[in-house]
Specification:
Blueprint lengths: L2 H4 L5 E4 L6 E5 L4 H20 L2 H17 L1 H10 L10 H13 L9
Antiparallel strand pairs: 1-2
Length: about 110
């Protein structure tokens, strides 16, 4: 059970599992904010469903490029969140490897 289920209206926090350090605060959404998020999600799902495979491929390639650009920061954040090696040793390397699986290798420079 989450802390917001135990104490409605209170913030929750992300903790570094290795140190116990709080590094992010998460305030609960109001009912109106939640409804807006759900409506936007439904709209996005409809646009995705109606898009062609060419449009989807283009979006996924751009998403992969953005992930590659942010790879080191994402690996660091995932390690801090305990989503990689909890000891901290090699966590970033493991996350970079996972991101390569998801995103594919960096594209070769033009002309190669």
């Amino acid at each position: 059970m989450s802390s917001t289920e135990l104490h409605p209206g209170t913030a929750s926090f992300s903790l570094n599992p290795a140190t116990g350090e709080r590094f992010a605060r998460h305030d609960p959404l109001s009912d109106a904010d939640l409804e807006r998020v759900l409506a936007r999600t439904a709209q996005a799902a409809g646009r995705w469903k109606d898009s062609s495979h060419v449009e989807r491929q283009s979006l996924l390639r751009r998403f992969g490029a953005a992930l590659r650009t942010a790879r080191d920061g994402l690996a660091e954040e995932a390690t801090r969140n305990g989503q990689a090696d909890r000891s901290g040793a090699g966590g970033g390397r493991k996350m970079r490897r996972a991101l390569r699986l998801v995103c594919g290798p960096s594209p070769a420079p033009p002309g190669r």
